[in-house]
Each structure stands twice: as structure tokens, then as C-alpha cells.
Write a structure and sequence with these properties.
alpha/beta
């Protein structure tokens, strides 16, 4: 049984059609998205998407299958370049930037389908995520200078520290592909944390997990936010997880935002109920 308990959070307006937790109102939102949209040929996949995330918020992006959720993540991380709209990350416009550049600015993600280097060790997977912090140059690596070994030692210590968040330090030298499914999911989150993000995007982190693993995941997401003081946004179909941990929730349907608010607001929204369950037939 999970011991996690979410504290009540008041959502307040920011100078846009968005809301963030009251505790973050004195700081610039880590993410502000305005009128974001993308077309593929003649098909509009996402249209007029607006959202803000507070600097320590746990936010949810939900909607039926095919609503455009992963497309939004791909736009935020510049896998896709938007057709229109603005993405402000930590107060900076990301227009024209690529995936590597926005990652260095502070946005990291996991994927629906696990993307680990399965033939490498758990530790090596995390070390790959730490590339932004590796403080040495190619000549020192080739010549194995003291600066190279110092940076390697610091990175290894940091990687083991990150693994300890999920009690995975004892798995450090196991092959990533040999881990159980839930542990592979956790490792992908640890690797993303290695890039030192200010905003962590989790794409269906509970997919394939049993109820016990999902409860543990909820506790760990909260622990990550509290330990690193970062924002987290997740796409998830497990409504118990979403309603139990998210503070602000945005609902997409056919690429458009149909509702935003607290879990209580979303659960009471007729538009959301209709999107998930369909419209009731009127009596004759």
C-alpha cells in the first residue's frame, strides 16, 4: 500500500490563459506555451495549445488515444518543429533550437517505448545521461590526462547517487537489458535526471507496471520533485496515478485543449467525461 499523500495545492492564474501552483507564482514558469500548433500535410495534429508549468509543479497531460499528447512532447523537445506558436523554457524562446540545445537548456524526457542501451550496464546508461556535466575535452580523454580521470570519477559518483534514488545502486554493473520491465522504466527516468533538467517529461511512466510498482512510482516522482526542486509533466493513462499525484492537469482531445484545472476540476468536467466516455444519447 502506498504511503504517498498529496498535499492540497491551490492553482492561480498567471498573465496568460494558464494556471500554476500558488507557491510558484513569484517565479517565472519553467514552461510557457502559447498558441502552439503543428500540421502534417493537410492534417492538424495539435492546434492552439496553451499551457504553463510552475517551477516545482507536477503536471499531467491526459486525453484519449490519438489526442496528440506525445506530439506535444515531441514539440516541446524539438523532435518536431512547430508550425506555429511559441515555447518559452525558463523564460527563453526555443524557436529554431534543436533537441540537443533544448536538452542543455533544461528539458529531458522518457519515452512510451523504453529506449535504453540494453547491452550496456545500468551505470553506463546513466553516465551517458551525464554527458552535459562531463568537464573534459577530447585531447585529455585520448591522452588519459588527470582531468579526464577526475571527471570520470565525479561522473561515476553522481551516477551511483542518482541510482540510489530508486535503490538501484546494487544493479549498477548489470546489463540494462537484463533488468525487469519496471526497473528498466526506472532506469530511463534516472538517465533523464542525469542531464540535470529543470523540467522532466515522463511519457506513460507507469505503462506495464503492476499496482505495487505504480504506487512506488508515485512516491518516487514526488521524491524527485522534492529532492531536485524541478517541474515534472507526465502523460499517463492510469487515472489513479494522475489524480493522485498531479497538481494541474491539461486535457487534450483531437489536438485541442478541452479542459485545464485541478484533479477535482477535471473529474467534474462534462467535456472531459464526454471525451472519455462519449456523449449520452438523448431520450426520445
Amino acid at each position: 500500500m502506498s504511503k504517498y499523500k498529496k498535499e492540497p495545492v491551490k492553482l492561480v492564474p498567471v498573465p496568460s490563459p494558464n494556471i500554476i501552483p500558488e507557491r510558484d507564482i513569484d517565479k517565472t514558469p519553467i514552461l510557457e506555451v502559447s498558441h502552439l500548433g503543428i500540421d502534417f500535410g493537410g492534417l492538424t495534429a495539435v492546434d492552439d495549445f496553451n499551457m504553463a508549468i510552475g517551477r516545482t509543479e507536477i503536471a499531467g497531460l491526459i486525453g484519449p488515444n490519438g489526442a496528440g499528447k506525445t506530439t506535444v512532447f515531441n514539440l516541446l523537445t524539438k523532435v518536431y518543429q512547430p508550425t506555429r506558436g511559441t515555447i518559452m523554457l525558463d523564460g527563453r524562446d526555443t524557436a529554431g533550437m534543436n533537441t540537443i540545445q533544448v536538452n542543455k537548456m533544461g528539458i529531458a524526457r522518457t519515452f512510451q517505448n523504453i529506449r535504453l542501451f540494453k547491452d550496456l550496464t545500468v551505470l553506463d546508461n546513466v553516465l551517458i545521461g551525464l554527458h552535459n556535466e562531463m568537464d573534459y575535452h577530447l585531447p585529455s580523454a585520448v591522452l588519459r590526462l588527470p582531468s579526464y580521470w577526475r571527471a570520470e570519477r565525479i561522473a561515476k559518483e553522481r551516477a551511483l547517487e542518482l541510482l540510489s534514488i530508486f535503490d538501484m545502486q546494487d544493479m549498477a554493473y548489470a546489463k540494462a537489458g537484463s533488468l525487469p520491465y519496471g526497473a528498466q522504466r526506472r532506469l530511463e527516468i534516472v538517465r533523464a535526471l542525469g542531464t540535470n533538467p529543470a523540467l522532466l517529461l515522463l511519457d506513460e511512466p507507469a505503462a506495464g507496471m503492476n499496482p505495487s510498482e505504480t504506487a512506488e512510482l508515485m512516491e518516487n516522482i514526488s521524491k524527485i520533485r522534492d529532492t531536485f526542486q524541478i517541474a515534472i509533466m507526465l502523460i499517463e493513462h492510469d487515472m489513479n496515478l494522475v489524480m493522485g499525484i498531479c497538481e494541474g492537469i491539461c486535457v487534450l482531445n483531437y489536438g485541442k485543449v478541452i479542459a485545464k484545472g485541478s484533479p477535482e476540476d477535471i473529474q467534474a468536467s462534462p467535456q472531459v467525461i464526454e471525451a472519455y466516455l462519449g456523449k449520452k444519447k438523448e431520450d426520445n
